[in-house]
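Write out a sequence, fold above all:
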Amino acid sequence: MGLDFKRATDLFMGTEEELARALRMELRVLRQHRRDPARVPDVILRNLADVLGERGRAMVRVSELLREDLADGDGDGDGDGDGAGGN
């Protein structure tokens, strides 16, 4: 079982509107492609791969920041250990 446009767009963690903006297409076009993923042009699939890759890298960075917050001992991200946020 391969990963087609519909399955790949299901992995995008956001709204259809956000995905359409990220792919620089109208919402109705996105919905058409999701209904008929076999007809999606390769250029759009490459664009989706880029968008998902960028989103993935961003999520990795968010994960790193959260882990850094946990490592500072208070989870508020300011590194002072008081848990209150701010500096």
User: Anything to note?
Assistant: Residues 42-71 form the longest helix (30 residues). Helices lie at 5-10, 16-22, 27-35, 42-71. The chain has a mean pLDDT of 85. The CA atoms of residues 70 and 82 lie 12 Å apart.
